[in-house]
Specification:
Length: 235
């Protein structure tokens, strides 16, 4: 039997002080990154993109390769609209339950699909379910990826059937500079997610916040900028 990536999930306390796995980027500037997992979806991803465009907000989409293969036009639109596309494996696997070779294939298959438009400035990976292991961290380092999760206080849990108002209240009440906010644009009825986004974006603008991609957020943070962009630490 091939070795699994890890039999035990690493916790945030195991990583945040010793390895650049990103949960958020606290800063003085009023910048935040809104992220969407599990797409693209032909209905809801397009609706999300419409709302983002209306409010001149940028986002990062962590896409599942098999869906990206089915809907390349959405990936092209995400890139054309100035958003960022990250890797979320090919079939949304649990990295704690597969071999390292299987995980590598999943990442590489997705990479070939989403990066046809050109090599990104920073390759981003978000593990499904937020699971992390030391072998995953090592693999990401070898493949020049950065692992991006989300702010603990900004997991909207939109997959659990929450209402739009509840999600909007959570995001706006807990808002901090440098937050990385988690939504999903696929995997079920994402109408509440779209509605929440319509509530949130005008309020963010009123408060002076700017929605940027994860890469832009990290570039504005002195430590992450050094780690990820400046030689000899960067790509």
């Amino acid at each position: 039997m091939a070795p699994v990536v890890s039999g035990e999930s690493l916790q945030r306390k195991d990583l945040e002080r010793g390895y650049p796995v990103v949960w958020e980027a606290p800063m003085k500037e009023k910048l935040i990154a809104i992220t969407f997992d599990d797409g693209p979806d032909p209905i809801f991803s397009s609706q999300v993109l419409d709302v983002l465009k209306e409010h001149q907000a940028k986002a990062t989409f962590f896409v599942v390769g098999e869906y990206a293969k089915m809907h390349p036009e959405i990936i092209k639109r995400e890139i054309a609209d100035g958003h960022e596309v990250g890797n979320h494996t090919f079939t949304h696997i649990d990295i704690l339950k597969v071999s390292t070779s299987k995980l590598k294939k999943e990442i590489e298959k997705t990479e070939r699909i989403i990066y046809r438009e050109g090599e990104p400035e920073l390759k981003l990976f978000r593990p499904p379910l937020g699971n992390i292991s030391w072998p995953l961290v090592k693999m990401m380092e070898e493949k020049n990826y950065k692992v991006v999760l989300w702010s603990w206080h900004q997991d909207t849990r939109d997959w659990a059937g929450r209402g739009a108002g509840s999600m909007a209240t959570q995001v706006l009440t807990n808002l901090r500079n440098g937050d990385i906010i988690l939504f999903h644009d696929a995997g079920g009825d994402r109408t509440p997610t779209v509605q929440a986004l319509k509530m949130i974006l005008p309020k963010l603008k009123e408060r002076g916040y700017k929605c940027v991609t994860v890469s832009e957020l990290l570039k504005s943070h002195p430590t992450y900028k050094k780690w990820f962009f400046e030689p000899p630490f960067g790509n």
